Amino acid sequence: xxxxxETIQERPNMPVRVxxxxxxxxxxxxxxxxxxxxxxxxxxxxxxxxRAHFPPFLFEAFLFEAxxxxxxxxxxxxxxxxxxxxxRTRRLWERLTxxxxxxxxxxxxxxxxxxxxxxxxxxxxxQKEEKQQEDKRFTLQTMIQLEKxxxxxxxxxxxxxREQTSAELEAWQQRRPAAAEELLQSFNGLLHTRAExxxxxxxxxxxxxxxxxxxxxxxPKRAGGNIYFTFTPRAFPTALRExxxxxxEEWLRKQAEARGAADADIQELTDLTEEERNPxxxxxxxxxxxxxxxxxxxxxAYSLAIKINEKIPALFSNxxxxxxxxxxxxxxxxxxxxxxxxxxxxxxxxxxxxxxxxVRRGTAFCLLHLYEQGLRDYEAALKIDPHNQDLQAxxxxxxxxxxxx
Length: 405
What we know:
Layout: H1 2-10, E1 16-17, E2 22-25, E3 29-35, E4 42-45, E5 49-54, E6 57-62, E7 67-77, E8 80-87, H2 103-196, H3 211-217, H4 245-260, H5 279-291, H6 295-308, H7 313-325, H8 329-342, H9 351-367, H10 371-384, H11 389-404
Parallel strand pairs: 1-6
Antiparallel strand pairs: 2-3, 3-8, 4-5, 5-6, 7-8
Helix pairs in contact: 2-6, 5-6, 6-7, 7-8, 7-9, 8-9, 9-10, 10-11
């Protein structure tokens, strides 16, 4: 017993082999069930090898015959890891694993399986990246097509209005001679009637004023005086005793710089039109995609706008909302923090703009179970909008969660 304890102490990191697995089969499939209470399992599977590692336990199987790994699956749940393997040859196996005592053979199979699995993972990663790029291109093309359709619709409407106006103008020009002649005859008849009507004498002839009367009727001159005006150049309605003019002027300066800023690398985006180089146009595209539930399309539009101009806070704030919808919680926190960084200094003019990224970052923190950080953001949002009942209820819910933990 003492020697066994010493051996265990010398190799404390050796995994515990799992032998209490069960397996069943048909002519076409093999089902292997490995007991496992953990949700974090490192799984490796190839045509001839299986491994499930959930420290300190390890399940390893060198399969009796080759299977089709591309059609096989592995699921974790209900206290077990369940492998469903598709046989290449339709027949019953004598046993699940090969009977070999050669450690060299097992090592060779294991290394070959790990290498094949690594190659498969790399290939899947490349395919996933290519699919994401394809989705981005498709989204951008769809946005461009929608914009083109909208432009064509507006142009058709303008053409129809132009044709209608031209038709009305032409009809008016055709009626104009007759209308002018009728108007001239009416005017001549009116003049003739006035000329024939006798003039009545005035009931009281008007006499010119004498020089003395002219002097008397002149109003007296008003006494001279001065009127003083004071003006203020301030752009914010804050009372003077509460003024933060330095911060307010800095915020106005940052807004002006943001509108004039552009990425120097924008010249590299030669495949974009003039409108697609406009961050405001891209933001509007992203807003429309977000409203219809196309969160990935909105994310791509905001990202391109940020690449063009990275000093507009609304772009980061709106992209944070997209990340929240797509459950990219860490990215949501980063974008909301970047928006708040651009919205400094905190003044009354940007209070509404600061409210949105503050709540979005607090929500992302809570979804990450970081309730203390989330509570700080919600309390900061309440300071901006203290009468918001939804904010009050959410803040109280977070406090309740922290009290129960």
